[in-house]
Amino acid sequence: MFLRNLILALARNKAIERFVRTSRITRGVVRRFIAGDTLEEALTVAEDLAEKGFKVSLDLLGEHVASEAEADSALEEYLRLVSAIAASPYFGGWMPERINISIKLSQLGAHLDEKRCADRLEKLLAAASLHPIFIRIDMEESAMTDLTLRLVIEAHNKHKNVGTVLQSMLLRTPSDIEELIRQRIRVRMVKGAYLEPESVAFQKKRDVDQAYLACACKLIRDGVFPAIATHDASIIEKVEHFVQLEGISPGRFEYQLLYGIRRGLQEQLKKRGRIVRVYVPYGSSWYPYFTRRLAERPANLLFFIRSLFSR
Amino acid sequence: MFLRNLILALARNKAIERFVRTSRITRGVVRRFIAGDTLEEALTVAEDLAEKGFKVSLDLLGEHVASEAEADSALEEYLRLVSAIAASPYFGGWMPERINISIKLSQLGAHLDEKRCADRLEKLLAAASLHPIFIRIDMEESAMTDLTLRLVIEAHNKHKNVGTVLQSMLLRTPSDIEELIRQRIRVRMVKGAYLEPESVAFQKKRDVDQAYLACACKLIRDGVFPAIATHDASIIEKVEHFVQLEGISPGRFEYQLLYGIRRGLQEQLKKRGRIVRVYVPYGSSWYPYFTRRLAERPANLLFFIRSLFSR
User: Fold this and answer.
1) Pair B93, B18 in one domain
2) Residue B125's closest CA among B185, B200, B66, B68?
3) Is residue A215 assigned to a domain?
4) How far does chain A reach from its first CA to its final CA, in angstroms?
5) Which positions in chain A touch B275 (Cβ < 8 Å)?
């Protein structure tokens, strides 16, 4: 966890950001994790994954917009994504959720004006529900948790095509799980990739992992079609064991893994007949997403460092 | 085909109908194919199937209502079904289509007044799209084909959660397939279980089978998430062969089989990792459905006859 926190801290350094964002050296490794800058590139990657039998979640990168105008244009981009999905021969037409959309509420300006963010979310959900496309509200840093859950629950009262994400590293998560199960809102379970203080989050990997397994099993047993989003093969094996023990059908949940990370594991889970959804990020605002990926897995960092020296 | 046509003709005899409908002797065998008289019984069967990893399509039996009032009450029953599904811990909440609803347009009075039927269908689709529930419009006898396709295409312009069924025995079907592929409307492919004249339908089993395979392959390659609805293991093997040859992911279509028929085959396809949806009929108007099942498979008829003598 020390290395993780160090990277997350370093990532805030502007000089480092400038280097990573603009250097040609880093472009190759960025492309491993980011589908492209444009919607069209992202859709090509998504269709290729669908062809191979994966489900997909598309995420237009971006968070904490600086103005209402930026939030408006993020909404426009997402509506454009909804239309592009509806027109795709792979994803258009009413079919069992081959593709989802992921979005962060700080992209829609939740931190600027909650009410206007709720209006934008409502527009997106209404447009998406016609096709139908499920919208996953990503979870951000802990300062956003309350706001995010409030907006998700409010939106879910009207549109059912919305779910969210909980992080096992947060101490509050077990009680949030209870609430979302009660509301029958779909949850993606992640460990959490933000730098969080001791007062709100576990600091030891072991504690985060232990909490993850407990949360995942609870959701699989009592929740609505949860997403088990982890690259941790040891946790996945424990989840598989739990499911077998309880006689739970593997169709009652899905695994989610990130584009470019542990592709062998993705393939292997698919071959075992599990539903595997690949989270595909795209867009020009990839820096925060990218650094969180480097921080959370030594293998990703190693891959990055190696690529810096291999040219 | 001779035996099939004989049974379909005999089924129209009122004395035979009275015996089958009211005798305690036939109750057991009826229960093998019909989930129950009530919505609650049907939902229990559906949840049990979901628990085992099957997808489900629920069908409230009934067709060719005699009055607008009967069509209204069929709509009410279907709206009640939508609510019950939304409240079910197995099916409620936005998830990848564990349950569908099947309906016949003659239940909604299409043969009485096309416009009023369209209004009822619109109400059902609007209610179902909120959850979201996909509505499959069953295909009826050939006199209904034009009317059914017209109403489905019209409804699909507004609501995407609707698809229909085509029958390989009909000579017109290849051109209907082209049209529904163009409209990106989901199709369930069946052989056809109605007594049809030579002018519109193949009369030889071999022709119907051959047409079935061609239609199924066409839909799998070019259509939107088609349903391959057959109990014919030899056709299923040929479909599997085609899919493998073309490198098509088995997630791009689903098999559909009827409740109580070839349960071993259902289990086996599920174990192979195929999506298998079981069509579960319920309700008190089960007689026409039941006799079509007896007519289409000697094994079903044998099972029926044996049960008459085994008491």
Assistant:
1) no
2) B185
3) yes
4) 30
5) 96
Query: Which residue's structure tokens are 């259509």?
Result: B223
Q: Which among A59, A120, A138, A262 is annotated as catalytic?
A: A138
Residue in the block written with tokens 């397939």: B177
The answer as to whether B153 is a domain residue is yes
Q: How many domains does chain A have?
A: 1
Residue A117 · residue A109 · CB < 8 Å: yes
**The token pair that represents B137 in the structure block:** 């419009």
Q: Per the domain annotation, does A298 fall within a domain? A: no
How confident is the model over B277-304, as pLDDT tens digits?
Answer: 999 999 988 888 988 888 888 788 888 7
Residue B299 is part of which domain span?
Answer: 1-34+295-311
B166 lies within 8 A of chain A by CB: no
- Residue B95 C-alpha from the chain's centroid: 22
| Encoded tokens for B217 | 């392959």
Instruction: Say whether residue A95 is in contact with chain B using an 8 A CB cutoff.
Output: yes
Domain assignment of residue A59, yes or no: yes
User: Alpha helix (H) ranges present in A100-227?
Assistant: 114-129, 145-158, 173-182, 205-222
> Could you give the 3-state DSSP secondary structure of residue A113?
coil
pLDDT for residue A249 is more than 90: no
Complex ipTM value: 0.77
The average pLDDT across A300-311 equals 75
As a whole number of angstroms, the distance between CA A132 and CA A152 comes to 18
The enclosing domain of B43 has a CATH number of 3.20.20.220
Token pair 């009485």 in the structure block, residue: B112
- Mean predicted lDDT score pLDDT of chain B: 93
- Ranked by mean pLDDT, the top range of A22-26, A302-306, B271-275 is B271-275
Query: Which of B34, B113, B31 lies closest to B289 in space, CA to CA?
Result: B34
Least confident span in A19-28, A277-286, B123-132, B175-184: A19-28
Minimal Cα–Cα distance from A182 to chain B, Å?
11
Q: Cα separations (Å) of A200 from A145, A154, A203, A309?
A: 11, 24, 9, 38
Q: What is the gyration radius of the CA atoms in chain B, in angstroms? A: 18
